[in-house]
Amino acid sequence: MRNYWVTLSKSLAVLLCALAATLLLGTEKVAIDTGDKGVLWKRFSEERAVYDPGIYRVNRFDTLYIYDIELQQRRISVSTIDINGNSVSVSAMVSFQVVDEKLDKLHANVGPNYIEVLVLPQMSAVIRQRLGANDFGFSIGKSSLMSNALILPMIEESMRGLIKIKSVSELSVSSSPAPALH
User: Fold this and answer.
1) d(CA 46, CA 151)
2) How far is residue 141's CA from residue 158's CA, in Å, rounded to a whole number?
3) Backbone angles phi, psi at 52, to 5 degrees
4) Mean of all residue pLDDT scores within the chain
5) Residue 79, beta-bridge partner list
6) Contact of 165 with 96, CB cutoff 8 Å
7) Distance between CA atoms of 90 and 175, rounded to whole angstroms?
8) Average of pLDDT values for 54-67?
9) Rounded to whole angstroms, how far apart are CA atoms 143 and 21?
10) Would you say the C-alpha torsion 106, 111, 116, 122 has a positive or negative sign?
11) What does the buried/exposed string (b/e) look like for 145-168 if buried means 16 or more CB atoms within 10 Å of the residue's CB?
């Protein structure tokens, strides 16, 4: 009978060690830096949790996506044709920031590559629309072309409230006349 208890206690110890190893090896530490937030995607659940800066243990089956929630800037170049057929090119700098309270929706609807999927294409579309609606002829009126008062509401609407556009500043504008028809 004593041999039975010794065998049982050894088996139980091995089982507990295996369980502890599985739990420890089944997670990894993930650090979220200041100025970032994380969204945890759980493989076997629709639940998404937003995490503040810190160090967290995450199951290896799950993924913690890190988002930069500080003010970011990207350069964008757009070429189009104005209403008279003149070729117009603009290089602009856009400053934007993720809306902190809607980070889980941004992750669910767009994903971690939101800059390439949402911000840059929408910026290009709005700037093209603004450029195409102007007649540049011989001169370019820089002050009216990319006025933040005109362009920011158009961009904000297209971002679905997920991204806050802080400013759009023109870096360069060039125009060439339309080719003459023979």
Assistant:
1) 36
2) 25
3) -80, 170
4) 81
5) 89
6) yes
7) 9
8) 90
9) 65
10) negative
11) bbeeeebbeebbebbeebbbbeeb
Task: Say what the alpha-carbon torsion angle 73, 109, 48, 51 is, to the nearest 10 degrees.
Answer: 10
Residue 53 neighbours by CB under 8 Å, 6+ apart: 32, 33, 34, 35, 36, 37
Taking Cα atoms as reference points, which of 91, 87, 96 lies closest to residue 78?
A: 91
Structure tokens given for 75: 């350069």
Which pTM value belongs to this model?
0.72
Per-residue confidence at 143, pLDDT binned at 50, 70, 90?
very low
Residue 123: which H helix or E strand, with range? helix 120-132
Q: How far apart are CA 20 and CA 164, in angstroms?
A: 45
For 33-60, write each residue's pLDDT tens digit: 999 999 998 877 777 889 999 999 888 8
Q: Tokens standing for 28? A: 């990894």
The answer to whether residue 28 scores a pLDDT higher than 50 is: yes
Cβ-proximal residues to 8 (8 Å cutoff; 6+ apart), any chain: none
Torsion of CA 144, 147, 149, 152, to 10 degrees: 140
